[in-house]
């Protein structure tokens, strides 16, 4: 009997200059294969790779991370068992008889008459063939088969098991999730992510951290004896529960599990504890594919974590809101780079004579690509989070100054500045340079800030504002009265104007306390010899009340709405009131 007549496995060989991950992936994809040939550029065998050696490396702790990128040559064995396709099987009988069976080959590499790789013959196939030729080897061969099978079983167990906790690992978890989806079996997928685990590790060391993971693994298994439980990595665990085997309310069961996971446990430093964030998603109710199912459970878990722990079931509105936010973010980034955010101008007037005093520059953006029109209260904070607020400011400021460069020099151009921008010490110089290039005087510019600007670094912000003031720019404190340190700010800042928040102006008629606050703010500005502007003036009665209080300036829909073009002249509402 020739080797070519045996059950030849026509599997492709690996390149000898490849990486270890190639062999790992090959053995995982071909669970029955025990041997792979590595060939040189001419297709001739350069070495052999055995399943036992490769899988044991991959299944060790951090195996993939340690070995994936290592050269394949480090794990190759010499191609000792290379045979021709026309070679007789009986020729190796004496060679095997003199070999310790624990070192028997996993297989034989076949070559053609030119010495080029032609396939693999499994070692067990050769042994079975020799049984027919020599029945005296039967007992030893059966023992060898048992040893090999046990080794394969152990290798499979190691490949599917987390070595620290003894739970299933992520690979098996994903396989089982796939099986539920393929069979269409209703089930729940649950993610458990530990809170404060890094703190525990950092404070007490990895030994206590490992103990915590083992305790948590045991509590999850004890709480869900019928579930497939896995450690997915780090401090994250997963469960798969057949819906048909679920007794009672999932919500209640998860709450009980959460309480169990958060309970203290003994350790060398004493009793310690961690928190847990648990998210659950149902198949097929929340997802149609395995990828969607994992995503849904992760979203639920992340929502629980953002709520400082607890239990959350997947809510599709989470995805809807996040999809909207993602569309808004993407479109907003494009809008800033393409200068789509435009200035609009809201006038403010002298209450005494109705004359125009200037314009506040506001940013507006119509989001045509996202199906809705976000207001500045929505996209301005997002610009700050994305780090785009400075770029947007300069684009809007340049457009605004170009529009205002021909207006009378006594009118103010009020620009809203984000607190983030004050971190740049060069902000005043850049703004002055922009105004000079366009032909606008610095004394026409008014910088509006809110009290939140001071919470980052008051000393630095005051210094920047003084630089702006020294250049001739006015400084206005916006939304006055809504913060916690207004009087301190009034004392420290080089202010030229207070802007009373519209919440006080609009409630003053019906709220004596608001009315007194407005009166006090106007009195404070007069005492400090700075201007006072009332925001949100929307009716004639409010305007008349402000006139009686000797408020300097007013701004609001009654006097003029924000517009893309500059208005001018005397306010009709103020003229009528006068």
Automatic annotation (TrEMBL):
Domain EAL: 325-576
Gene Ontology molecular function: cyclic-guanylate-specific phosphodiesterase activity
Coiled coil: none
Residue stretches making up the GGDEF domain: 185-316
Pfam families: EAL, GGDEF
Signal sequence residues: none
Species the sequence originates in: Hyphomonas hirschiana VP5
Full protein name: Putative diguanylate cyclase
């Amino acid at each position: 009997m020739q080797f070519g007549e045996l059950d030849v496995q026509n599997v492709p060989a690996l390149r000898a200059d490849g990486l270890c991950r190639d062999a790992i992936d090959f053995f995982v994809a071909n669970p029955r294969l025990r041997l792979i040939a590595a060939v040189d550029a001419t297709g001739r065998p350069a070495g052999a790779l055995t399943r036992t050696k490769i899988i044991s490396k991959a299944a060790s702790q951090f195996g993939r991370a340690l070995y994936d990128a290592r050269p394949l040559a480090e794990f190759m064995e010499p191609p000792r068992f290379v045979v021709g396709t026309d070679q007789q099987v009986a020729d190796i009988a004496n060679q095997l008889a003199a070999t310790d069976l624990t070192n028997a080959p996993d297989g034989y590499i076949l070559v053609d008459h030119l010495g080029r790789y032609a396939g693999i013959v499994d070692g067990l196939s050769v042994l079975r063939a020799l049984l027919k030729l020599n029945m005296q080897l039967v007992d030893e061969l059966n023992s060898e088969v048992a040893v090999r099978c046990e080794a394969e079983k152990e290798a499979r167990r190691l490949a599917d098991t987390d070595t620290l906790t003894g739970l299933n690992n992520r690979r098996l978890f994903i396989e089982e999730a796939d099986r539920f989806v393929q069979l269409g079996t209703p089930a729940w997928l649950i993610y458990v992510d530990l809170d404060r685990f890094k703190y525990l590790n950092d404070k007490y060391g990895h030994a206590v951290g490992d103990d915590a993971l083992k305790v948590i693994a045991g509590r999850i298994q004890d709480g869900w004896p019928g579930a497939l439980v896995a450690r997915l990595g780090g401090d994250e665990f997963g469960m798969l529960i057949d819906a048909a085997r679920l007794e009672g309310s999932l919500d209640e069961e998860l709450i009980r599990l959460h309480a169990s996971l958060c309970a203290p446990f003994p350790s060398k430093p004493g009793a310690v504890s961690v928190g847990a964030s648990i998210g659950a998603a149902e198949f097929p109710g929340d997802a149609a594919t395995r990828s969607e199912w994992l995503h849904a459970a992760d979203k639920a878990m992340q929502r629980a974590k953002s709520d400082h722990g607890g239990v959350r079931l997947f809510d599709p509105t989470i995805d809807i809101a996040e999809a909207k936010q993602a569309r808004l973010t993407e479109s907003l980034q494009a809008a800033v780079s393409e200068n789509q955010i435009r200035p609009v101008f809201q006038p403010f007037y002298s209450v005494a004579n109705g004359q125009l005093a200037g314009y506040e520059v506001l940013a507006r953006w119509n989001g045509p690509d996202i199906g809705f029109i976000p207001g500045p209260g929505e996209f301005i904070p997002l610009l700050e989070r994305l780090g785009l607020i400075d770029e947007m400011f300069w684009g809007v400021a340049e457009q605004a100054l170009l529009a205002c460069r021909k207006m009378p020099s006594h009118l103010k151009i009020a620009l809203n500045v984000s607190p983030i921008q004050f971190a740049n010490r060069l902000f005043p110089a850049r703004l002055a340079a922009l105004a000079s290039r366009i032909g606008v005087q610095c004394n026409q510019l008014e910088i509006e800030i809110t009290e939140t600007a001071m919470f980052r670094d008051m000393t630095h912000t005051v210094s920047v504002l003084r630089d702006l003031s020294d250049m001739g720019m006015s400084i206005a404190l916006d939304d006055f009265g809504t913060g916690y340190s207004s009087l301190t700010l009034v004392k420290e800042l080089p202010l030229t104007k207070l802007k009373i928040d519209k919440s006080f102006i609009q409630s003053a008629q019906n709220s004596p306390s608001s009315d007194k606050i407005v009166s006090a703010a106007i009195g404070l500005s007069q005492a400090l010899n700075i201007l006072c502007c009332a925001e949100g003036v929307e009716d004639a009665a409010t305007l008349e009340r402000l006139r009686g209080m000797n408020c300097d300036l007013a701004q609001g829909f009654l006097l003029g709405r924000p517009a893309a073009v500059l208005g001018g002249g005397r306010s009709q509402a103020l003229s009528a009131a006068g």
